[in-house]
Amino acid sequence: MMQDMFEFPAEELDHQAYITLLIHTRRVRAADVALAKLLCQGQYDAVFYLVLLLQRAEQSQHTCLLLAEIDWQNPFSLSADDMSAGSDTVSEAQHLPYTPFGNPDMALAALNSHPAVGEGRPLRLFAGRLYLGRLADYEAYLSDRFQQMAEQPIQQDAAQLSALLDQYFPLDNAQDVDWQKVACAMAASSGFCVITGGPGTGKTTTVTKLLAILQSLYTAAPLSIKLVAPTGKAAARLSESIIGAKGRLSLPPELAALIPEQAQTIHRLLGVIPNTNRFIHHQQNPLHIDLLIVDEASMVDLALMNKLVRALPSHARLILLGDKDQLASVDTGSILSDLCGHLKLGTQPAYTMDRAAFLNQVCFAGRDVLKGKASRYALADATAFLQQSHRFKSDSGIGQLAFAVNNNDPQQLQQVINHGYSDLSFYGLGVDQYNALLERAADHYSRYLEAIQSHSEPEEVHALFSQYQLLAAVREGPYGVAELNKRIEQKLAQRSLVAPYSRFYAGMPIMITQNDYQLKLFNGDIGILLPDAQGQLYATFIDEQSTVRHFYPARLPSFELVYAMTIHKSQGSEFDYTALILPPIQRAGKGVNRQLVYTGITRAKQHLELNCQPQVLQLSMQTEAGRQSGMAHRLHIG
Ligand SMILES: Nc1ncnc2c1ncn2[C@@H]1O[C@H](COP(=O)(O)OP(=O)(O)OP(=O)(O)O)[C@@H](O)[C@H]1O
């Protein structure tokens, strides 16, 4: 009876014609239509169109379709041009924009009574959100498991913990609250913890101190600890940072030996089964570990996080590290920003009364430093937010620029631009400036190419290459990676540094774009083609254990040139000198947003060169790349 309300009288809409229009205007794919038809048993009802919208949302990496966010007047965002393109097929009489279903309440009622929707069925409904079943399961599992882990009782001697915290974080009366100490106390006393913070806020330093404290607490039976990151580059960086932080702590050798230094990729930890998308470790064959630390957690998609967490034994603890403001994962989900999205710069997470009392006891000798409050967020007591950057001092333009962009503060942005910081350079996008950018790129790249010509070792060549990177916000057009790559290659050829006249050439830098589990080469891995003594070319890669690996070029999975790379692909990497190019205003679509530009800026360690129109920087800062999910709702953020 209810459902009848949502069927369209035949004279109102020619469904076939409408669907053809949606396919023709690339709003949906034929495969989306096939699935929607299957789930709705050939009925063109409201649910049919909602399934099309759901698949559109999933293709934009949303975990679900939030019914309240649908533009009910024009759900597929058809423009007048789109409609005229389809005027042969869609009758003029049909009003524009056409809405095939009424409003959120009607849609909800239709979904509630639909046979494809519900537990154990292909579609799920949760808190006004429509999901594909698989993604709803991942999200529900993770939110439950995070909560369970956070609530897991940890047996600990508070006095001993407090003494160790004071040893690693001596009380400094000049400082208000040492949030690194709080983060460490929290992670030491919890089965689950998220430590978020911008670049250089001390996430790795804090975790290294945490590991020293934990291993001191459990000397009788030291914890089995693993460090992972989503990409080889990020894992290599984590290893480097942990080694650096350990060195600065001057730990006794027996304690230092209990703190792992080598991080690995999540795929390596789980053990890829060649030619499948399955792993050796899973719920039935869990990992043998007590504590897992995941760095760059913002890059981990929902499916991979689900596989990782399922492979943890029931007693294991989990710590997620990352910058909540960076770009979300390439695939579906936005776990870190879902868990930390409520945290605002300049404020701190609100801990519950009991938790605040405990933290005051172990960190501040019982002084009433942290104020507790009633919280509806299940992970309130498991979240730490580090905000003070120790890498970027107050005279660093990179840090100031990152802060202004992240805070969407146009005044501060202007001040940064006017100030003239030595670690920042700004250029426009005029023809001469564009050409000068290419020349600068060629100057930088000439260093590693000259090293190849003088037969330097692969390690040195890779190190020189990775000092500089040109990052682009988009792929296509003159400001996109494809064109930039071609033009830089031409410049280098003009300087006789490369001879790009065949498919492979000495010095050619490549980035793998497809996982190859057999060769253990993964999306994002960077290689350089180098000749051996006989002149035979090999693609050389340096893995996260700093081992050089050689491959015959013909065996490589798909790859692309990488003189320029997209900001998306640069996540998890850092470069001494980063050049960033944003397209001009008429080409800066929805893709250029705050998270993207912030991620690009924060890849720079020593110098950032920004090539863009000032108004594009302002526009991107105002545009937020939100992803829809129900994770925060499941965790009851209220
Ligand atoms: N409390 C502190 N006081 C002084 N220096 C610190 C402190 N914490 C960290 N640092 C220094 O700041 C730098 C960055 O620290 P760390 O690598 O731990 O940050 P991070 O948040 O892990 O950085 P990223 O994730 O961006 O690599 C290091 O040189 C470290 O020694």
TrEMBL record:
- List GO terms (cellular component aspect): exodeoxyribonuclease V complex
Q: Where is the AAA+ ATPase domain?
A: 189-346
Pfam families per the UniProt record, alphabetical? AAA_19, RecD_N, UvrD_C_2
Q: What class of enzyme is it?
A: isomerase
This entry's Enzyme Commission designation comes to: 5.6.2.3
UniProt cross-references to SUPFAM superfamilies, sorted A to Z: P-loop containing nucleoside triphosphate hydrolases
Listed A to Z, the keywords are: ATP-binding, DNA damage, DNA repair, DNA-binding, Exonuclease, Helicase, Hydrolase, Isomerase, Nuclease, Nucleotide-binding
**Residues reported to bind ATP:** 197-204
CDD domains in the record: DEXSc_RecD-like (cd17933), SF1_C_RecD (cd18809)
Q: Which reaction does it catalyse?
A: ATP + H2O = ADP + phosphate + H(+)
Q: Do you know which InterPro entries this protein is assigned to?
A: AAA+_ATPase (IPR003593), Coronavir_polyprotein_1ab (IPR050534), P-loop_NTPase (IPR027417), RecD (IPR006344), RecD_N (IPR049550), RecD_N_sf (IPR041851), UvrD-like_helicase_C (IPR027785)
Domain of life where this protein originates: Bacteria
Biological process GO annotation list? double-strand break repair via homologous recombination
Q: Which GO terms describe its molecular function?
A: 5'-3' DNA helicase activity; ATP binding; ATP hydrolysis activity; DNA binding; exodeoxyribonuclease V activity; single-stranded DNA helicase activity
What does the protein in this record do?
A: A helicase/nuclease that prepares dsDNA breaks (DSB) for recombinational DNA repair. Binds to DSBs and unwinds DNA via a highly rapid and processive ATP-dependent bidirectional helicase activity. Unwinds dsDNA until it encounters a Chi (crossover hotspot instigator) sequence from the 3' direction. Cuts ssDNA a few nucleotides 3' to the Chi site. The properties and activities of the enzyme are changed at Chi. The Chi-altered holoenzyme produces a long 3'-ssDNA overhang and facilitates RecA-binding to the ssDNA for homologous DNA recombination and repair.
Q: What else is known?
A: In the RecBCD complex, RecB has a slow 3'-5' helicase, an exonuclease activity and loads RecA onto ssDNA, RecD has a fast 5'-3' helicase activity, while RecC stimulates the ATPase and processivity of the RecB helicase and contributes to recognition of the Chi site.
Assembly mode: Heterotrimer of RecB, RecC and RecD. All subunits contribute to DNA-binding.
Protein name stated in the entry: RecBCD enzyme subunit RecD
Query: Which classification does the entry list for the species?
Result: Bacteria, Pseudomonadati, Pseudomonadota, Gammaproteobacteria, Alteromonadales
